[in-house]
């Protein structure tokens, strides 16, 4: 069962208490896993046990997503604000300078933690922040449409759709290249997570002006991109490599925007290799 921890964070309005839910498995060097916008820690379930054979894995629900509370008043959802929360979370659960792997929003946050020298290595899977303005608008329109659909559908309809391969493709085809590989239970749960994500609006608003333009010279960085990513197009990986020249750029053949279930073995190997 996932755990929950409350801890104090410093905000522009003074000390506040944050509360995040997380799943912890395995042993070895610490590895923090960060999901994308609208998702929850279970996005990592396809690779979690593989990673846990070699790492002390902590998969966290980001603020306002999954079972985690929204950020307290006075704490912004921008990169630096959420980065500080994650730094305080790591201290609270007793992991010092973990390796970190993130997907989409989580990949962008992972790079921010690397830029701030709070982690040992970074693996970013289709990270946000390397888009053109047109690509950003397209991604945001798609995300808002997914969120709107999840909120407008009655829960019994979501349940019925999740039980067929066509329905799973309808619900998650924008983020998975192989939505049929997700179980009905997983698709149902993640659609409800998107529907109930209390931090969605604030997180998307904070990301509107985000561009990741800095090198991350202090830690090893791996950037991996699915060749069938339809949300953040693979050419953005080339921009990431130009921005972070020392990064290892990896193609994920046949994978979509959330590649962990499209090819669990490949994604797990990329993360483990990147966190040596």
From TrEMBL:
Q: Is Hydrolase set as a keyword in this record?
A: yes
Q: What is a single molecular function from GO for this protein?
A: hydrolase activity
InterPro entries per the UniProt record, alphabetical: AB_hydrolase_1, AB_hydrolase_fold
According to the record, the segments passing through the membrane are none
Q: Which of UniProt's keywords are assigned here?
A: Hydrolase
Boundaries of every AB hydrolase-1 domain copy: 31-269
- Pfam family name, one: Abhydrolase_6
What this protein is called in its record is Alpha/beta fold hydrolase
